[in-house]
Amino acid sequence: TLATAVPPPASSISSAALLLTAISPRNLPSTSALVLPCPSLNPNSGYYLLVSDTSVLVDLERGSFLEASFRLPLRFVVPDLLYEQELKDYGGDELMKLGLVVEELDGDGVSLALAYRRRAPALSLPDCFALALAQTHSWILLSGDRALRQLATDEAVECRGVLWLLDQMHNADVVSIQQLHDGLTAITKHPRCRLPKPEIRRRLASYAERLC
Q1: Per-residue pLDDT tens over the stretch 59-105
Q2: Is 13 helix (H, G, I), strand (E, B) or coil?
Q3: Cross-strand partners of 193
Q4: Which CA distances in Å does 134 have to 19, 140, 141, 168?
Q5: Among the residues of 30-124, which ranges form H helices?
Q6: Which pTM was predicted?
């Protein structure tokens, strides 16, 4: 499952992905070698396009919100490198059946991702690819990682998180108040929860009041 996903050993990562960290940005090829079959994106489809990092998808699974999130008028997108390294062997097929789209970066996009990696070495290369994809297409970035969110802000990329998604689910009536309360409680009980505690308390109090 996503919640147990860990980066695969280097030997299992494609050579094309590993080469990205070694070659000159001026001579970068397209990442088409990593592209997986996926639905084509139509910017006029009426969907908001969201580039997600793995942390958001993990939290959605912990709260049993994955299926509901894909019923929203949103299109969830991940860069090909992130899918290959962090999702493919940890529920990736199921995510794609739900509607997850895998997108490639062209040479300029890869150059941008590597520039982000040099600016913020603490970020993973897949996270840098996610930010570059969002920046390149002017899409919204979904992330729960503080460092990635800060870099997105510095780059004027709109960034949202799990709590925003829960609000969208509530507004769209795709989950009940009980589901919101139980799911958010499950997310916050995990030791690696990084959601802001004041916002968690405010929402849980609001949900509990409506359940009375």
Answers
A1: 999 999 999 999 998 999 999 999 999 999 989 999 999 999 999 99
A2: coil
A3: none
A4: 22, 6, 6, 20
A5: 54-62, 66-69, 80-82, 92-98, 107-119
A6: 0.79
